Amino acid sequence: MKVIVIGLGSMGKRRIRLLSEHKDVEIYGIDTQEQRCKEVEDKFGIKCFASIDEACKVEPVEAAIISTSPLSHAAIIKDCLNHNLHVFTEINLVQDGYDENIALAKKKGKVLFLSSTFLYRKETQTIIEKVHEAKCPVNYIYHVGQYLPDWHPWESYNNYFIGNPRTNGCREIMAIDLPWIVTAFGPIKKVCAMKSKNTQLNIDYDDNYLIMLEHETGAKGVFAVDVVARKPYRHIDVYGEELQLSWNGTADSLNEYHIETKKEENITFDDASEHVDGYAAFITENPYREEINAYLKQIADSNYKPAWNFEKDKVLLDWIDVIEK
């Protein structure tokens, strides 16, 4: 299979590296910046093009991975579908073009795959499973935060999408984490949020939120989201009469409290955690690999159902709009 990776920044390079593990996949790069193309050609030994149209005229491309900034996704998805390509896209953060591209993908009979990396983590999958198995109502308290300039230390936060109010850092955290939260605890029924700007960062949006969520299942949660915390933070406590879990966001930190023994047990996983330098400790590579595998599986098997999709995401983005307003 011939696959183009569109956008050769840090995420595009990650996708190329993970795709290269599949020996039956031939990879090409797409970027308008000649310097990025040269860097990727030198590092990965793949051919790069300046546009989708140029690549498709030269090679019989079948699929695309879009790793550009979120506000560019809608137009690129449409372009890919019009070139009869299956599409994988990073999270969008906005609903631009959703209805049109969902309809176009169905008309063309093409896969429209939406990244939701945390749904492919063993830790969150285990939390989801145990919450679903619990016979009692549960609540949770979840805090995710990291100081905005530390997200990409190699570049200014004003130079990429998290500096834009429409695709801001807090919104990205919500769009990353709420898919697995609603998968675990159920669709959102009601939200209430307090927010403010507590830093001197050069941004035109609120930098911290305290969000209360009520789910249709009866579960309730407090979700603290911020780009303020100087120490990267990801911690959740899930508690009910028959279930108590805690997780610090890393592969070795999921714990379950056993009521009978009154002891806490660490839940371990067979596969090792792979980490890339420059990212916070709770950003591991395995889930990115798993969602690439899921994309390729859906292309091969039309009956395969991915963990997340555009229809579910549209509902969630509506709720994020409510939270921000």
Helices and strands in order:
Blueprint: E1 2-6, H1 10-19, E2 26-30, H2 34-44, E3 48-49, H3 52-58, E4 63-66, H4 73-82, E5 86-89, H5 98-108, E6 112-114, H6 122-133, E7 138-145, H7 169-185, E8 188-196, E9 208-215, E10 220-226, E11 233-240, E12 244-247, E13 255-258, E14 263-266, H8 286-300, H9 310-324
Parallel strand pairs: 1-2, 1-4, 2-3, 4-5, 5-6, 7-10
Antiparallel strand pairs: 7-11, 8-9, 9-10, 11-12, 12-13, 13-14
Helix pairs in contact: 4-5, 6-7, 7-9
Largest sheet: 8 strands, mixed
Low-pLDDT residue intervals, each spanning 5 or more residues: none
Number of helices: 9
In round numbers, the mean pLDDT is 94
The separation of the N and C termini measures: 44 Å
Taken from the alpha-carbon principal axes, the silhouette is globular
- Approximately how much beta-strand content do the residues carry? 15-25%
Looking across the biggest beta sheet, what order are the strands in?
8-9-10-7-11-12-13-14
The helix content, as a percent range, equals 25-40%
Output the helix-strand order.
EHEHEHEHEHEHEHEEEEEEEHH
Structural class of the secondary elements? alpha/beta
Strand count:
14
How large is the radius of gyration? 20 Å
Protein name: Oxidoreductase
Pfam families: GFO_IDH_MocA
Domain Gfo/Idh/MocA-like oxidoreductase N-terminal: 1-113
GO molecular function, one term: nucleotide binding
